[in-house]
Write a structure and sequence with these properties.
alpha/beta, Rossmann fold, 2 domains, 6-stranded parallel β-sheet, globular
Length: about 375
């Protein structure tokens, strides 16, 4: 059977440790289960040399083609529009009938070119920075070529309708996980031995960035209320590690906190398997908390370790208190600590919600997500 062909157009730097890069690459690998995939991204000389390392570095389930397109590197509106026009022209010249992008300008020009197009929305505030967004989501003349706008949460879909988007083209498509990365799980002891972690104390693990507003500060303060526990941060840019490390030192907790810095996506499961409790301490200061569908949430669920998360409507679309996670009030180190202690003190509860999370995440794979989107694009 001949597979359809799809072009994914991204303005993300490929590769990088930014979440948008990881998400784009994982989605391309998901599409590759159902189509021949080509990713078109901006050309940066230093990045192009790393193209052959993508599959191993990001643990991509399936290979796909990467094409570099010219990009004016100076930050102007012309650069954004120029790249979108060039990408649409490339798609047209190569005879693509299906395309997908997170760039509203690219989505507009692709649809205008007669290519069946999907636009993925993660942040309404960011999308609306571009004047073309309103035309993209409301202009019926783009039908039937604009096949769908895919929002990562139900809340984002509802907010998009309130902002003027046509409800007939909107779909909910949460982020996902590559379950192949978790198909050979390690025990806690095995993972800790591989990472050189002491196995006597309980370990609380946080994966991902720790820039201000992501809850690193609150998590350090919560650790002070959990005697005997240790905390591991798998992720964080150097400046953020320095800042949060200083907070740990101020709290007298430096010897109980381990910072790994940026970790390749391929190694993330190892850190998650080492945990007694996995934490998502988002705060009301977290950017895009109103629309967030964090990839690490699905990775946490796949790792089958108990999760403590702060309670936000977008997270409750997937997590349910007492069923597949423990949810606590945000911005409160005391309630965060209480949620963690609850799981450390009740291993039976932790095992039960971890099993349920592992069952629930089966529906949130990149392959299933891509299959749904492909059905709408090609239907």
């Amino acid at each position: 059977m001949t597979l359809p062909k799809i072009l994914y157009i991204s303005r993300s730097r490929i590769p990088s440790d930014q979440a948008n890069c990881v998400q784009v690459l994982k989605m391309c690998a998901g599409f590759a289960a159902h189509a021949e995939v080509e990713l078109a991204a901006p050309y940066f000389r230093e990045d192009a040399r790393l193209k052959d390392t993508l599959q191993e570095r990001f643990a991509l389930a399936r290979p796909f083609t990467v094409r570099w397109l010219p990009y004016p590197h100076f930050r102007t509106r012309f650069a954004v529009r120029g790249f979108a026009l060039a990408a649409a022209a490339y798609a047209k010249a190569r005879g693509y009938r299906l395309a997908y992008t997170r760039d509203p300008w690219a989505a507009y020009w692709l649809a205008r070119s007669g290519i069946h197009t999907g636009f993925e929305s993660h942040d309404l505030k960011e999308d609306r920075r571009y004047p073309i967004w309103q035309k993209l989501v409301s202009d019926r003349s783009l039908s039937p070529d604009l096949r769908g706008v895919f929002c990562i949460t139900r809340r984002l879909l509802e907010d998009s309708i309130a902002a003027g988007a046509r409800d007939d083209i909107l779909h909910v498509a949460p982020d996902g996980v590559d379950l192949q990365q978790f198909q050979s799980p390690m025990s806690r002891a095995e993972a800790r031995n591989a990472l050189g972690l002491p196995d006597q104390e309980p370990w609380i693990v946080h994966a991902g960035h720790i820039y201000e507003g992501r809850g690193g500060e609150e998590l350090i303060q919560a650790l002070a209320k959990i005697p005997g526990a240790r905390l591991l941060f798998a992720g964080g840019k150097p400046a953020d590690v320095v800042r949060v490390r200083a907070i740990a030192a101020q709290q007298g907790l430096a010897d109980r906190v381990r910072f790994e810095g940026m970790v390749p996506n391929a190694k993330i499961p190892l850190y998650l398997w080492a945990a007694d409790v996995l934490v998502m301490p988002y705060t009301t200061r977290t950017p895009i908390i109103a629309s967030i569908s964090p990839m690490k949430m699905f990775e946490y669920m796949a790792a089958e370790r108990p999760i403590v998360s702060t309670d936000f409507p977008t997270l409750r679309e997937v997590l349910h208190d007492g069923e597949n996670a423990v949810l606590v009030a945000p911005d409160s180190p005391a309630t965060l600590a209480a949620g963690i202690r609850r799981l450390l003190d009740d291993p039976g509860l932790g095992a039960r919600i971890a099993r349920q999370a592992r069952q629930d995440v089966e529906q949130y794979t990149w392959e299933r997500r891509a299959e749904k989107i492909m059905g709408i694009l090609a239907g």
